[in-house]
């Protein structure tokens, strides 16, 4: 049987994975909130697409396509983060079992730890990809699907409108 004095270092070692679980839990909270926002936005766009047609409907459907891809990416990020938490939990249990039975299997501990870290890295990569995709949806909303020059056209139209407003009115009898 293992004494309490022998388990204290094991408890100290297990603190690292516990902190990881806490941090990833907060990350999961953020990801699930983001998934909820994407789903709510998609539902609103679906309602809009039913009421519109033409170019507005096409832009709405393009946004829905992007949101579908975003939701799948967020789901992947959530899945990988949950796997990371499961690996960290398994690591804690494994550390205690190995200490309790006085076994030395650093290879197994390393594999579980690396699997948890790889899952976390994959989760963060998917989450960052989702953030970048949200800019695509925003671009479609602002400028229309597939038009990079929309911003330049809108700026030119706004500049022309403001220059017309600033020009002094010409008097009817004045010659040019």
Account of the 3D structure:
With 176 residues, the chain is mainly alpha-helical. The chain has one domain (14-146). The chain contains 4 helices and no strands. It has helices at 4-51, 55-100, 106-143, 150-166. The longest helix is centred in the first third of the chain and has 48 residues, at 4-51.
Task: Provide a compact summary of the structure.
With 176 residues, the protein is mostly helical.
State the major sheet.
none
- Low-confidence blocks of residues: none
Q: What is the strand content?
A: under 5%
> Could you give the distance between the termini?
105 Å
Kindly name the structural category: mainly alpha
Counting structural domains, the number is: 1
Helix tally equals 4
The residue fraction in helices comes out at over 70%
For the residues shown, what is the average pLDDT?
85
Radius of gyration: 28 Å
Number of strands: 0
Identify the overall geometry: elongated
Q: What are the secondary-structure elements, in order, as H or E?
A: HHHH
Key terms:
mainly alpha; 4 helices; elongated
């Amino acid at each position: 049987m293992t004494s309490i004095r022998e388990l204290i270092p094991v408890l100290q070692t297990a603190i690292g994975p516990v902190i990881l679980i806490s941090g990833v839990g907060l990350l999961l909270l953020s990801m699930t909130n983001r998934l909820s926002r994407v789903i709510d936005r998609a539902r609103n766009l679906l309602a809009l697409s039913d009421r519109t047609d033409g170019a507005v409907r096409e832009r709405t459907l393009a946004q829905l396509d992007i949101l579908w891809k975003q939701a799948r990416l967020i789901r992947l990020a959530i899945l990988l983060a949950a796997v990371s938490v499961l690996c960290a939990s398994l690591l804690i249990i494994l550390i205690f079992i190995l200490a309790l039975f006085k076994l030395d299997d650093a290879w197994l501990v390393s594999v579980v730890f690396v699997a948890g870290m790889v899952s976390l890295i994959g989760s963060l990569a998917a989450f960052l990809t989702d953030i970048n995709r949200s800019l695509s949806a925003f671009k479609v909303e602002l400028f229309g699907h597939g038009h990079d020059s929309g911003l330049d056209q809108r700026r030119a139209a706004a500049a022309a409108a403001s220059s017309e407003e600033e020009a002094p009115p010409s008097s009817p009898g004045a010659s040019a």
